[in-house]
Write a structure and sequence with these properties.
The chain is of the alpha/beta class. The protein contains seven helices and eleven strands.
């Protein structure tokens, strides 16, 4: 899921270290402190490059400092600061939740641990539970997954989050199709659980959302847009689809 450069705004600062509606704190690092990793026996060039990137990534360092489970937590913080997805008392489903960075942010900003909101997360990978959330280890693509999530939520949701991604192959078209298949499954579920006025936030790849899926979402949401948070690595093709103002009374 470094040091952080404070903003000069007067916006409200969350306990996670970011501000809502008044600017955003962004981790930064000094060029003089760059860590260089030497290749070692048994380590491939790609793994050496990955390790060096992790050691020099200000978001990784800041996540560790704040006790966040992944640098990805900053992506959700930035999207929330910009689009106001999370509020105290909201009911949230987090798809593809492991290792729990997004779930942590959702719990904190809905105040679920204080009993105000509710957060349910699911991932096929083993992950440690997050205090204040119901954390399921299960394949979201399994036939019984939607029912399990609905049972854990105990009612409609105000927000469905999906940071799901299939393992990349390096073939751009194939990777795009795999991510879109997950996005379609996430939206199918969102349609079945979102309350009136709810929202949907889902990872897709650059090249945009497929026309058929985008058309379906636009039919049921008042606003639909794409955004790439600063915490998303520049070389990554990922962007996020934000759909807000769900119309629960419209048929599929």
């Amino acid at each position: 899921m470094s040091s952080r450069k404070p903003t000069g705004s007067g916006g409200r600062r969350s306990s996670s270290g970011t501000t809502r509606s008044g600017g955003r704190s962004a981790p930064t690092r000094s060029r003089d402190l760059t860590v260089k990793v030497r290749s070692a026996r048994g380590r491939t060039t790609s793994s050496t490059q990955w390790l060096q990137r992790q050691l020099n990534d200000p978001y990784v360092q800041e996540a560790k400092r704040l006790g966040l489970r992944s640098r990805a937590a900053f992506k959700l913080m930035e999207l929330d600061d910009r689009f106001e997805l999370l509020k105290p008392g909201l009911r949230v489903v987090d798809l593809g939740a492991a290792p729990g960075g997004w779930t942590q942010v959702a719990v904190q900003r809905t105040r679920a641990q204080e009993g105000q909101g509710r957060v349910v997360g699911i991932d096929i990978l083993p992950w440690e539970g997050v205090a204040g959330a119901s954390c399921l280890i299960h394949d979201f693509m399994a036939d019984d997954a939607p029912d399990r999530l609905k049972e854990a939520m105990g009612g409609p949701a105000d927000l469905v989050l999906s940071d799901m991604a299939a393992p990349t192959t390096g073939h751009r078209k194939t990777d795009h199709l795999r991510v879109m298949a997950l996005a379609e499954a996430a939206w199918d579920f969102a349609e079945s659980i979102l309350a009136e006025g709810g929202a949907f936030c889902c990872k897709v790849f650059q090249g945009g959302t497929e026309d058929a899926l985008l058309k379906r979402i636009k039919m049921r949401c008042r606003t639909v847009r794409h955004a790439k948070p600063a915490a998303s690595r520049p070389e990554s093709p990922e962007v996020y689809l934000l759909a807000q103002g769900f119309r629960a009374d419209i048929e599929k």
